[in-house]
Amino acid sequence: MSLLEKLPWKQKALAQFAGILCTLGLTEMSRSAFFWVFLPFSSKELGLSLSLIGLAWVVHSLAEAFSRGLGGYLVQRLGFGVVAAFAGLVGLITVIGTVSYPNGWLLLGSTLVWGVAISALQPGYLTYSSRVAVPGREGRAMAYAHFLVMPWIGLGWVLGTFFTRNLPGTGGYMLMVALGLATLLGLANLRVREPIPKQGFRLSQLLPILVVVPVAFAQTFLQNLFNLVILKFTFNVLLFTEWQLYLAIGLGAAVAFVSAGFLGRLPDRRGPLLPLVGSLGVLAMVFLLIAQRPTYGQFLGLCLLGGAAFATFVPSWNAFLVRLLPVENRAAIWGSLMVVEGLGAATGPAVGGFLWDWLGPRGPFLGGALVCLGLVVFYLGLWRFGAGKR
Question: Which residues pair with 9 in a beta bridge?
Fold first, then answer.
């Protein structure tokens, strides 16, 4: 079996999938470089305060989160290429406007419109990935679809920092080139269309999805619960160095990516329930043990174990969704579900900070373990009533 045959997507769709991935990747790269590197480093020259830049990010991310249902509907009706080209063009106008006419209201307004425009890309990308997946490999296809976007976000940080610090004055041009390429790639993908539903959207299509709305919220809530406290916990409580933390997180991420192909076979072949319950149980144990203030060697082992559990959870969750979501109107429904996921991601850090203040440094990790165990009970309940046997 050749390398291409081992991939979870149909070979005839690989070129289009790569084009869609690069379009989304360039957009995500530009966004991370713009908000997290270019604007903070250029705030003095542009006359924009850091609080205003932070507010612009909040406006942008909320606009994207709440528009994903609409974005999924538009990508289903207009095609990925149209919405991607529009998102790239709006991003390009945002960068040019910020560089040429720096103004607080202009920044807030343009980033809001950019958030709405970009909202269609993720639902369109994930829907296409599920549609062209090889039958029986849907979980792995969706897991790798998620993992393949992450390096682009990191690349935005790296390239943005390089251009801003080593080639002053060129960061804005780098963003313009990247967004221009994203716009052109969007135009090149005009032929990528989702099948037009034979029937209109029906409320009955939402009924199977309603049972997983709490889980969609909880799993993104869990992923972001530690954002505000992880550095403080590792540096001030565990007394690890910066590089020790980076090594542990890097190895955990590497284990997650490398093992996703092998562990992702479990939900595709055995069904998603047991891998979901097992991975969540392991994550609960990892969080409980981290709360006991482990040594660095123990912490490293827990990060590796957590990476393997995450590599099992992601394809299992996505395989469960692919089985549950109807083929017709999938992009619109997926986009609506991503609104709930966005709310979970937005509230996770705040709750993590509250648990730290209320229960001390162990609080967020005890809370994370409790959420995992709650999800285990929820999935077992779905299995008991037949929803998990699909």
Answer: 133
